[in-house]
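Write out the 3D structure for:
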Amino acid sequence: MSDIIIIGAGTAGLSAAIYALRAGKSVLIFEGLSVGGQIINTPDVENYPGIAHTSGFEFANGLFEQAKSFGAELKREAVKELIDEGAVKRVKTDKGEYEAKAVILATGAKNRPLGLEREQEMVGRGVSYCATCDGMFYRGKDVAVAGGGNTALEDAQFLSGYCNHVYLIHRRDAFRGDQKNVSLLQARDNVEFVLNANVTALEGEKRVEGVTVTDKFSGETRTLAVSGLFIAVGQMPANEAFANVVKLDDKGYIVADESCTTGTPGIFAAGDCRTKEVRQLTTAAADGAVAALAAGKYIDSLA
């Protein structure tokens, strides 16, 4: 039996492993997809304190090697079920069953895509899901933001401070986000609303050179010459397998606050999979540390 099982090997999960191992706990990590999480798809990381510049892959690989050097064990298995048996937590994967005294859920969340042809191919080459991560690379250029919630509105505000012109494309005639954010954008000369329209195609061969938008009612299309498309249409957590042991909100995120504790003793949630306002590398790493120390404290209380 392991002291702590960590489900997910992204920034939060690997950070949790490092802190748990340094606290003297044995750690088993499960990851059914790519080690490192979403950040491995980001070509340039410049917003992590203390690291002026790195790639997402290098950052994630460094975390993994650090965790491994402390003794973390990684199994490439997809977790199918988590069973709470009080002092014992049972984890079922596609290959077997495992036991631990505590579990840290660090499953992350995927950015919801628009479903455009070549969308994933163009990530890092003009398509981005994080304005605060990549916006600086488009200083002085024309860009587009797709979305109608507060994230899209805030992304457009952020980009308008660096970019020449920002198109905000939304499929409805009114935004779902706060009116305060809408008013701030209306006051900016370099922000243009494109309403009742959908992004229907990406232009450019090796990099994004424009986007085609289609009017929802008339079907009329126009091409906006932009260097970047920032997609902000929500995220998709993958927590359904744990709904029997932790509470999920209406969007599927695990209900847990800054202490990373869920309502179930011995089960913790760290990173983008939990309810939170800010989802960045720094907050994921912080969650990992908090969850690991909380799990260690819980285990010690069992003795």
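The mean pLDDT is 95.
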